[in-house]
Design a protein that fits this description.
- There is one protein chain.
- It is built from six helices and eight strands, in the order βββββαααβββααα.
- A hairpin with a 3-residue loop joins strand 2 (21-28) and strand 3 (32-38).
- It has helices spanning 86-101, 109-124, 129-146, 189-197, 203-221, 227-232; strands spanning 7-17, 21-28, 32-38, 58-63, 70-76, 167-171, 175-178, 187-188.
- By secondary structure, it is an alpha+beta fold.
- The protein has two domains: 7-76, Beta Barrel (OB fold (Dihydrolipoamide Acetyltransferase, E2P)); 86-232, Recombination protein O, C-terminal domain (de novo design (two linked rop proteins), Up-down Bundle).
- Helix 1 packs antiparallel against helix 2 (109-124).
- It has a five-stranded antiparallel beta sheet. A three-stranded antiparallel beta sheet has the order 7-6-8.
Amino acid sequence: MSSAELQPAYVLHTRRFAENSLLVELLTRDCGRMTVFAKGALNSRSGRQGLLQPFTPLMAVWRGRGETPSLHRVEPAGPALRLEYKRLYCGLYLNELLLHLLGRQEPQLAIFAHYTATLSALLESTDQHATLEPVLRQFECRLLEELGIGLHLTHDHAGQPLNAETYYQYRIEDGPCLCETHHPLGIQGATFLALANETILSDQQRKEARRLLRHVLDYYLQGRPLKSRSLFR
């Protein structure tokens, strides 16, 4: 797939290829996830190495057919976003999720827009779990929704509205199912509703929401580990 015009893009990941080239995983606005070959990108005279970094808004053109076209032109579309400390780990986590869950060359306009907005939200957040985690949970929920595997957050498996005080176990195939208060996987209805409304979460809701999204994402990741999780630990 070739791009005839400059295309908004972000770098998700790079890996070295041969002596001075890179294979670059891009998230693009109109073509979704793209793997492109950046010939000579590590050559100091190319000027590309400094550009092909995560969290830098880019405009890119690639040429060629198949799964790995050649990067023809790339230029900055804005200043690099300076994510630091926990916010940097959060950004790397977003990139890993997209690498593992997005198919190649599938248009993802909504996901691109939400990714851009999430990076801005991380940049403006404090470096505290109380502000960072709601941003991550919103991204995860919207990503799953756009992929057609969104969570059931307002009704249980039988179609009944969730009760804020009741505890549920989330089953991938069915959604929330009633469980005992002290069930190890129990999540209070209030947490589901807070996620649905994108409201600020209490400490308990943050912990339950993290456990819920990890349970669901691990299912779709099919056992593939995320290196960014180890950074948080």
